[in-house]
From TrEMBL:
Phylogenetic lineage: Eukaryota, Metazoa, Ecdysozoa, Arthropoda, Hexapoda
Name the record gives this protein: Succinate dehydrogenase assembly factor 3
A GO biological process held by the record: mitochondrial respiratory chain complex II assembly
Keywords: Chaperone, Mitochondrion, Transit peptide
Domain of life: Eukaryota
CDD domains for the chain: Complex1_LYR_SDHAF3_LYRM10
Subunit structure: Interacts with the iron-sulfur protein subunit within the SDH catalytic dimer.
Family membership: Belongs to the complex I LYR family. SDHAF3 subfamily.
Length: 121
């Protein structure tokens, strides 16, 4: 693949991810946009082998999320995302594991709206 084709493919995927994120709830959209932006910046100068893996994974992510954001899927399942195969953890670097943990914490901590609502008993 030529350099021009590669750049075009990366830009098209990048824009697609942000377009798909528009269907997410606001707090997930912000987190998803920031994460995608950081990851694409971080991999801007990676080697061709890493670039291929990176683009394949983000393409799979965009396709999966686009399917889940269809109105019919939302009405049926009301779920976003999918579980990570535990076997993949064996192939991650320490830095990736820390990043994954930080992402998990950000995704599971209650939002400020939920914290300010008193419990009704």
């Amino acid at each position: 693949m030529s350099s021009v084709e590669h750049v075009f493919r990366v830009r098209r995927l990048y824009k697609l991810i942000f377009r798909v994120h528009r269907a997410l709830p606001p707090e997930l959209r912000i987190m998803g946009d920031n994460y995608a932006r950081d990851e694409f910046k971080r991999h801007k100068k990676c080697n061709p082998e890493e670039a291929k893996i990176f683009l394949n994974e983000w393409t799979d992510y965009a396709i999966t999320l686009a399917k889940q954001m269809k109105p019919i899927q939302q009405a049926k399942k009301k779920k976003v995302g999918e579980y990570l195969d535990p076997k993949l953890l064996d192939h991650m670097t320490d830095e990736q594991l820390v990043q994954l943990y930080e992402l998990h914490k950000a995704a599971t901590e209650p939002s400020t709206d939920e914290q300010s609502i008193p419990d009704k008993k």
